[in-house]
């Protein structure tokens, strides 16, 4: 049996007893021997347990000896490791009381053990197992808990934590990490608290820089914090309270990383920050913008994190954070908007909270913020469309009209991407596609904007996202076919306009290339320059575009091959594939020398993209026709695409009709024409009409190259011209005239049977023949001159227009739908149009026919549409006839030879139609007037008619008229700029020259009866300012002085219409004084010298004698003051007590304020055609009661009132004054409308009650009529000489 070897006593008097076989360990022996003996000691302690009381007492001295300086400071690494293992076992064996009583000694021992734990770093070391044993022993026993009794235990713990975080690496297995965790967590959880220094040793591993250096240390700290969350949370809260609230950044070296730490701690366990979040709410309200920005960035990450529930758990903080969306500091708002994207993607439930704040930010004054709102919404939508609600998409929709190009572009491109993903590729099913089906319409509506950048982007979006040009032809045409069928009316118009603009630009380029083929000359150079300027207008940044186009033109002149490529590109026969090759070749030639950025090349690319046929060629038209055939046969995917077969067929034909204008040569194939012939035989009138028009546009070679098609087409066209709808008849006659060589024979075969079959007793069968005869007369006037004169004189005028055969519907309505108009009136409307077409074909003002027709049309207007005055025609039918007569005079005025013979009286009658009592008449007439003026087809004097719109009681009509004025004046100024003309021609173009016509028109206004009446002068002033405001927007070339001089010159003339009528001339001078008063009040520059002497129209004004000087002021000082400040308030009630109360014969209805008057109108950039009625369309939209009231004869007058009025009226009142086609008054009823009138049909917001008759007929209303019109009203037939 081995006995323990005894040794002298240890330093504290205890005897050191070594285990059996172990000799004394002193500094006298070698390190190897020390290691050898210590291993045996280690084994002895390893085998001992806490219950071995005898051995514990026996080896107590050895335990004390192992803690001596010799061992603790031994330079040998192995010795220190073995001693540490022994000490760890000693703490295990003697637990819970350690054998060491000195605090200093305990501190030295634990610091020594901690230093040995660094050996854990090298897992490949031979001694690693002993290091692991040491760690395991310490963790299992929780030996370091003894240190809680030490005053400076924190130093030991800090060193331990630092050591463990520094040594852990990815080579350690899970057991090592677990023991480290146990060791550290026991210290945190069983101590009295965690000091800031110790907390720093943990938190420093969460800082991004450290985290990236040692991922394992980060994971260890993360796991430690999760395990000790209940204990350490208070310490963490104290740290952040010191830094965030009290501002004591010196408490820790980590103070500058406080927001990074919060983010990491939140990701680890939100419970760690339970007490910290209210402190962040405090920081969000800091006065320091940068500090708020830092907190917002932090909270954005916390709220936006994938699984974060912070918003629901801490609503006050969430609401406070949302408040930062309205922060005064721009970077803070920007950060909030950027956060919204992640939040929408990760937390769809918060979308409702974000929506209102994003709405405000979508109108932020900062461009970058509005831009990022769009990016936020679009990014979320691209990830999942369900993440963005309709309101958020609405914000993007609004921004497509933003004032900044960058924002508009982002919004448009974002919507285009959503459309392509969900509508074109159907990535999320039909419901998602339906949700954003409005995008296609909205994007195309933007083409109405004035900016060329917007137009170019729409074209790019259409070619890349809506109908991708890189698809196969069949797939591409299928996209286009069904897209066109689903577009709304305005989007279709925009798309048509886009193709029209591209076609026009192709024509300009072709004309430029043609000029290159001519010999060099000064005239040729000037023509080239004009073409280049026009081309540059269709490109972005017109200034730079002009320079680049000049350079491009120079290159074209030098490079014949480049010209050849460009000619092929714009050739009607160029295919889409050839176009791609041409664009590539042209671009390649212009690339040299290569540059990082080449603005010249970019500009040329813009031009090439606009003129290249990327969608339509012969193959594409063939594919469209096949799709149309499938729809007709019922084998197409119409229902799957969301359209009915009828809609698809009609839209397909309309699409082909539009393309027949821009790409006519692509249609020339027997297969295409065969399909169109099938469409002609369909029952749908619109389809057949479109098919005829396509033949008309594309069939020039049918007669020579496709005889079979010709033989089939002719009888169909004859049938349509005789018995088709009016529109079909019109197109059929024009088609015959356009594509057949023997057109005279063909037209005669139609004319003769139709002329023989005219029968006024069967008006239902008259409309189509009248349309066909009218167009034949216009297209072949010489061939049918004699028979047409007979038809016009004997049938049109005598038998049809001068007779009322049927009694109209006396329902009192001023307008009705096309279906409700009597056949007789429809025939009369077409008869009026026939007269006009007949005259337009003759173009001869020497015959009596033109003057007689103008007298007839004037009589129609004077009689309010009831030419025979037999009172058989209904009010609504009379409105139709007034509109037809006014439009007819306007149409004739577009032909110079007839404009010369239109008298001022006839011009005034025509102009007054814009103040008609019927809303629809005013609306349609104004649109026709605008369209004719904007084409420069009507003389300038007709622009003055828009001044009368100031009297229109409907706000939307006044707004529309103002837009028309702006557009027309802009067109005229631009035309003058691009086409310099002589001063003589300037009179007919310069917008300022409208003023004399306006003054003359207002001086002869039938409402202007009392020259010194305030209300009438106020109306005159409003009409003048309605026009002058637009003209005086800018004082270009001292135009204000020119206007003043023009008006002053008018005062020195006589009225050519009534040169000897003193009252008429005084009214003219009074209107001039009002005009001078308005100009002087609105301009400070009008008193300067006029740049040139104005020229006045001689048919409206006659020069006075040379000695004549009109210095008289016709506008009194009192009236000037009233016009400036308004009419004085009426006297108090008491002052009028004794005055007699006048009983009016008719009730005056005060003005009704409708919703259309209270709400804003659409954008000024919106198309003028979008709110107007098409020429032949039916105005059937059901509108507000106020509009319905306008078109009722007596909306609320009761029978009893009518009886009383009749009884009280004097016998003299039966002789009522001469009727005048009434304007809608600006006063109408302010009371509720009767229920029975709610069903009144007709669109518009007019309030057109005819004005009550004046008690005494005004002098100025006395309009001369022919003798025939002055005959008795018993229905005697009257005939107008048309020879």
UniProtKB/TrEMBL annotation:
Stretch list, region Disordered: 1155-1283
Low complexity biased stretches: 1155-1184
Protein name in UniProt: Sister chromatid cohesion protein PDS5 homolog A
Domain of life: Eukaryota
Record's keyword terms, sorted: Cell cycle, Cell division, Mitosis, Nucleus, Repeat
GO cellular component, one term: nucleus
Organism: Knipowitschia caucasica
Basic and acidic residues composition-biased segments: 1187-1204, 1274-1283
Main location: nucleus
GO biological processes: cell division; DNA repair; mitotic sister chromatid cohesion
Subcellular location: Nucleus
